Amino acid sequence: MDPKRPWECADMSQVRTEIDRIDAAMVELIAERFGYVDRAWQLKMESREGAVVPWRIQQVIDRVKGQAAEKGLPPEMVEMVGAQWRNMIGWFVQFEEEKLRQVQNDTQKSGVDGA
Tens place of pLDDT for every residue, the chain, 115 residues? Predict the structure, then answer.
């Protein structure tokens, strides 16, 4: 079945199977995104760029909202997508900040202990 043709689902069981398939794919993509965020904090440490990059956060949110609108989602859903992305990015930023803080603390401890 073509996943972009939900009207071809014969019954509720088939609809639920497709929704479960989509949910699994979304979790897989979020896990993949997490891998890149995990790498990003390491690169930010080397470049001295902080975890919070406001222009980039807004750029990502604007892009996903635009993509949602292009797919024909209702305006309320477009706003919800933007809010969900902002929430997800907020968690990722906290993760990056914590990792950067851990490295800084470890560096300070080793500098004090090694002196």
Answer: 555 687 788 899 999 999 999 999 999 999 999 999 999 999 988 887 788 889 999 999 999 999 999 999 999 999 999 999 999 999 999 999 999 999 889 888 887 655 5
Number of domains in the chain: 1
Distance of alpha carbon 54 from alpha carbon 41, whole angstroms: 15
Expressed as residue numbers, the domain containing 71 is: 9-113
Does 36 map to a domain? yes
Q: Tokens 């990059």 — which residue? A: 53
Does a structural domain hold residue 34?
yes
Q: Residue 49 domain-assigned?
A: yes
31: part of which helix (H) or strand (E)? helix 12-47
**Model's pTM, two decimal places?**
0.80
Q: For residue 42, tell me if it sits in a domain.
A: yes
C-alpha–C-alpha distance, residues 73 and 4, integer Å: 14
9: left (phi over 0), alpha (psi -120 to 50) or beta: beta
For residues 96 and 44, is the Cβ–Cβ distance under 8 A? yes
